[in-house]
Amino acid sequence: MKVLVPVKEVATVEDEFEIDGTTIDERYLGADLNEWDDYAIEEAVQLEEDGVVDEVVTVTIGNEETEQTIRQALAKGADRAIRVWDDALEDVDLLDVGAKVAILEAVVEAEDPDLVLTGVQSGDDSFGATGVALAEAVGYQWGAVVNQLDLEGETASVHRELEGGIEELTEIDVPAVLTIQTGINEPRYASLRGIRMAQRKELDHQTLADLGVEADAVAGDLRLTAMYEPESESDTTVFEGGADETAAQLADLLREKGVAQ
Amino acid sequence: MSDILAVAEHRQGELRDVSREVVTAGAELAGETGGDLHVAVVGGDVETFADALNLEGVDTVHTVAYGEEFNHDVYTQAITQLADALEPAYLVMPNSVNGLDYAPAVATRLDVPLVTDAVGLATEGDTLVGTREMYGGKVETTTEVDADQVAITIRGAEWEPTEAAGDATVEAFDADIDEDAIGSTVTGFEEVAGGDVDISEADLLVSIGRGIEEEENLDLIRELVEALDATLSSSRPIVDAGWLPANRQVGQSGKVVTPDVYIAIGISGAVQHVAGMKGSETIVAINTDPNAPIMDIADYAIHDDLFDVVPALIEQFS
């Protein structure tokens, strides 16, 4: 059984930042493995360690700079990685769900995995839709926001985390795409040995032509036309001074509100 | 094509709040396009739901009497068929856990663009202008789409629920559900662990987030909780890490709390968290980041390191 894990490198933003047009000025940007995908990788690797799965393959849409993040996934136990990048993607400022699916669909067709595990959402653009849209495109079953997974034969028994502390128990036919919620497991840190081994694992770069994807399929339908800092909705009273002073002011407030003595 | 199709949501016999919110968002769009507002409800006691969805601004409620609880295959088939029949310009669905389990499939099956988690919607001619957040709420963006049909999911609690009654027509829609294409079965629901404490009953909550960095630092927080005679709660990452049990989690997937005072310590204020605590009477945020989203809803704030402020606060009550 093979698991494909779409892994994204997300942009992280410093506390203080400036906006430059429709992007954040790159001086304030960092990069990291998408938190939700970290849990998806861990879930796949655990399935392999349990002997249920034979191979864990990651796929990342990203330029050469994302290889460090991809190596992280390999260091955590994925067996090999595919990186998709192409000149046609250089100028796309917002890769929307349809564009991502056009690429990932081709990868699924080439790899023919039994299971696709990916994060519920990404920390930067937060569409939260790629997994389910991909499932529909490739004709797989799916489950969104999964926080427990038991795989038995052709069925995935999952818990889906609904709102308000309720979980839905669902049986899903495999092959399937499951979007993984944080907290489903405890993602491991890459060991030194894992990091060393990751350097020797296969990381295959593919272009759109390699995958048979037309360049115009990744242009997307959504245009990012403005980016700005949200307006603060409340009049916040900021306690000023050192920690002793601010703590004293807060203590007065708590006594005034009658919730502390 | 200028009509709107909004999709209701229900669970265990109850229409969920977001159903009245998709009506509001749909009615606003219909007001701009001059089209009709259609509302769909799939499964469960559709007649009762249709009565409840007969709200101001709704022209027609379409009922699909198939199944009891949510099933994404049934929803995807029913909504896609309704969209084919009605040809709406915009489909408005909830950005809920279940919304995210069918809306992307609907968009893919209809081969239309998808704008998720919208917090604002407007039209300019044939262009849809959606407002979305990125980077965990640090920035807002404007996203434009030109297409004959667009699928949209809206964030909960961003639109006022429509409460006023309407005079809609109710029509049964005879969806042709292909049972062979149903590959998922809901077998039940479980309530996440109760336990010793009900945080939703507390008057004073001390709530911690990622900012406490290490599990060992819980000791310091517990000392504060004891000094204040408060109740300890947390944001999601603390529960994900296994430092506190699930019954302590505030937020969309945890508990909704409304204490007199909510002290958020090292919590950035992700939207899912804010959904669970914004009803608190007074919100105090302690965070080094003055731009953290939590600051947008805080009544009082300390822009400082919690490891300096918390010991000083303990001192005040010793």
TrEMBL record, chain A:
| Keyword presence, Transport | yes
One MF annotation (Gene Ontology) recorded for this entry: electron transfer activity
Write out the transmembrane intervals: none
**Residue ranges constituting the Electron transfer flavoprotein alpha/beta-subunit N-terminal domain according to the UniProt record:** 21-215
InterPro entries documented for this protein: ETF_a/b_N (IPR014730), ETF_b (IPR012255), ETF_beta_N (IPR033948), Rossmann-like_a/b/a_fold (IPR014729)
The protein here is known as Electron transfer flavoprotein subunit beta/FixA family protein
Keyword tags: Electron transport, Transport
Q: Give the PANTHER family listed for this entry.
A: ELECTRON TRANSFER FLAVOPROTEIN BETA-SUBUNIT, ELECTRON TRANSFER FLAVOPROTEIN SUBUNIT BETA
- Family, per the entry? Belongs to the ETF beta-subunit/FixA family.
Recorded source organism is Natronosalvus rutilus
- Tell whether Transport is among the UniProt keywords: yes
Automatic annotation (TrEMBL), chain B:
Family classification: Belongs to the ETF alpha-subunit/FixB family.
Its recorded name reads Electron transfer flavoprotein subunit alpha/FixB family protein
Which CDD domains does the annotation name?
ETF_alpha
A Gene Ontology biological process term = fatty acid beta-oxidation using acyl-CoA dehydrogenase
A GO molecular function annotation here is:
electron transfer activity
Q: What Pfam families does this protein map onto?
A: ETF, ETF_alpha
Q: Which SMART domains match?
A: ETF
Electron transfer flavoprotein alpha/beta-subunit N-terminal domain segment(s): 4-186
